[in-house]
Amino acid sequence: MRLATWNVLWRFAPDWRARERGILTTLERVAPDVLGLQECWATRTESQADRIAAHLGMHAAFAGPSLPPVPEPPEHDDQAGVRMGVGLVSRWPIAGTVEHELPVSHRQVAPVALEARIAHPETPLRVVVAATEWEPAYADDHLAQTRRLAELIGAPDLAPPTFLLADLNCDVSQAEFAPLAPVAVDVWAIAGGAADAVTLSSAVPFAPLEAVKEMDRRIDHILMANGSGAVVEGASIIDEPVDGLFPSDHFMVTADVRLPPR
After folding, report:
1. Which of 245, 250, 238, 254 is nearest to 17 (CA)?
2. Could you read off the pLDDT of 142-164 as tens digits, one per residue?
3. CATH 3.60.10.10 fits 2-257, yes or no
């Protein structure tokens, strides 16, 4: 089973439609079985997760709001009335979803994490998709949110295997990651991934260079809850542009895992 997580930059510049074509092209090539999306857009009639799922012949779910807040006023007409959220795309049916508010003390609206049960034919699994706070001034909320995610994936009533697909806005060395370390394993590390790998790179022409806390770090993660019993067979970071344009300011992370028998 191939897992993936990708922050796809909502409808922000540059040219979100061209970027979305690159997103679809990349996903066709990488072929994830379960994909978590951050900065996923949604209108009143469809979400980006729906669009990706329709293109790939898969299933989708969406939950919002999420971070960052949508621009007010909109930067262009295609942003007007469009929500910010997290999405899930799955090769197998999504048997149920739950939205969990993440704690906030500074912002007016709490972001949500999306928990889903996936009806894998061999071993049912659970995934949590999330994006966390990033502003250094709101570091207390950032830490509170990763603590809440640790509670969700480490809850004793969650039947394994359980995976977190998230833009955590921190790498494994930063304080905000610490609550997750006791309850989950970093799939990238288990797969022998490079210690200096990055998923938010200043080499991308439209990288958010003001995000100094996150820049040039591996801040996008696939974590596996302790006791899940799956075997990690490999992991990759997908960092290529499509027709000269990076599909997002973040790079996609993938992991190949073998699920335990039912």
Report:
1. 245
2. 999 999 999 999 976 666 799 99
3. yes
